[in-house]
Specification:
By secondary structure, the chain is mainly alpha-helical. Helices cover 67% and strands 4% of the residues. The protein has 5 helices and 3 strands. Strand 1 and strand 2 form a beta hairpin. It is globular, with a radius of gyration of 18 Å. The two termini are 25 Å apart.
């Protein structure tokens, strides 16, 4: 994949992810009726809305801010755990596919955004190894050839 295509893919998936998380998080913090009804249906206490909503808004700020590579890893992990938990909660509550497809799509967007992120948005240790001649790779941190 070319670096231009990767960049477009990253910003496209990240933009949709962040828009959804920011809108959903804001609605949760404000206890929008649809969110309140959803939490009651799933059996969660309503104070969870505020906690989850604040986490989402903070996660969006971290993903969009320059730097903060370690916090970005935590934000991606948090989004994935939150969204996969939402899918599991909806399935456990007997909801139809239409009830949990949204969190599933956003969990996939989270993974895609994480996978496509550019090097400057990764932890140095997680940067992919660079190919070398004769089947060796050079690790990004150590700069020592490894067979």
């Amino acid at each position: 994949m070319s670096s231009r295509a990767r960049s477009i893919g990253y910003w496209g998936t990240t933009g949709v992810l962040c828009l959804g998380m920011a809108a959903g998080g804001t609605a949760q913090v404000l206890h929008a009726r649809v969110n309140v009804d959803g939490m009651i249906h799933l059996g969660y206490p309503l104070y969870v809305l505020t906690i989850v909503g604040l986490w989402k808004v903070c996660g969006v700020a971290v993903l969009l801010a320059p730097g903060l590579q370690l916090m970005k890893e935590w934000a991606y992990a948090g989004f994935f755990f939150l969204l996969s938990g939402a899918v599991a909660s909806h399935i456990a509550s007997g909801d139809a596919f239409s009830g949990w497809v949204g969190p599933l799509v956003f969990a996939c967007l989270t993974v895609a955004s994480w996978w496509l992120r550019p090097a400057e948005r990764r932890l140095p240790a997680s940067r992919l190894a660079e190919p070398r001649a004769h089947g060796q790779v050079e690790l990004a941190l150590s700069r020592e050839p490894v067979s």
